[in-house]
User: What shape does this take?
Amino acid sequence: MTRFHLIAILSAIASTIALALHRSILLNAVVLAFLIAVGLGVAIPQMRLFGNFICSGNRKKKQVALTFDDGPDPRSTPQLLDLLRAEKIPAAFFCIGKHVEKNPELAARILREGHLVENHSFAHSNFTNFYGRSRLKSELQQAQSVIEKAVGCAPKFFRPPVGLSNPHTFRAAQDLKLEVVGWNIRSLDTVIAAPEKIVARIRRGLQPGTIILLHDGNIPVEKLLTTVKSLLDELRRLGYEVVRLDELLK
Ligand SMILES: [Zn+2]
Assistant: This one.
C-alpha cells in the first residue's frame, strides 16, 4: 500500500464521519487537506506519495552521486565528459530519448566512459504527468528502445520530467522494470545564474547518500563546467566521495 492509498482511505473515513455528523465544514476541510496532500505529492518526489521514489542512497557512507538531466547535448555534454574523465568522477545521465536519437554516438560515449545512461522520457513533454498508464508506458518504452539501440544496454532507472509523478508513473515504470529516481538536492542550476551560488546551495543540503540533480542539457557550457569543477573541489574539501548512482543505492 502506498502513502497515497493510506491518505485516500483516511480521507474517506473522515469524510464519512463528517457526513454522518452533518458537519459540512469538516467535510470541506478533509477534501481540501486531501487535495493539498495530493498536489504536494505530485510535485515533491521526497514525499514518495505514489510509490518508491528513490531520492537518496546509503546514509552510512560519506558518499554522494551526481546526476545530469536533459542531455545528451552536443553543445555541453562532450566538455562535461572531458572534465569528468580528467577528474575520474562517474555520474548518471538521465537522457531524453529524442536527444539520444539525434546524438547516438554521444550517448554511447557517456556509457563507454563509465557513466550510466538512464531514462528521462522520450519527449520530455510538460504534459507527461497527465498521460495515462499505457501512453506513459509507450513513452518510456520508446526512450528505452532508442537508448538501448544507441548504447547497447537498456536503462534501469527512470526520472520523470520535472520530477512530477502520480500512480501511473510507478505502474508504467514497474511494467518496464524501471526504478523511479528523484534527488534530494535540486541544484536549480538552470535557474540560478552564478555557479558559486549553485554550489553554495548544494553545500547547504549535503549529507551522506545525497543524490544531486544537475543538468547537462540546455545550459551554457562554461557555467556547467565552472559549477561542476567547483562542486567537485568543494566535495573533496568536505571529505565526500562521489560514486555512481547505482553504487550509492547499493
Ligand atoms: Zn528534465
